[in-house]
């Protein structure tokens, strides 16, 4: 088993209370806050796992920004948070005509909103990559969320978000990052 797999399994078990099947034999010792010694009983290796607490910062803006429209429904940027990644959340404009007549059969509202593409940039020239996303869910049927990595570097002062919705003009929003 590779060292990365061992640490992934350990982190999953420790952080998410999930166990691998069957669990490998290992000894785990807490050395200090957030630092663990992991011994898989491999005669050539032991592992030092560091868990770091990262603050989550919600970027401030006064009102939602409309960034496009899908099937006649305006989509708003409602939240941007920064932690060990950048999280961008869109939601349908409250009270907007819903997708009842414009959505393809079988698609959910969030799947429709997910047609909007987004890219992230900053003034430090960081290359952001889309790493995951979520479209809808219980209580969030009208919401789509994207995660981009890496986190902005300390030298970045602004994030710029570019949105493109099919059939509408692109939108660009520039948000200040908090001072470190």
From TrEMBL:
Record-given protein name: Uncharacterized protein
Organism listed in the record: Paractinoplanes durhamensis
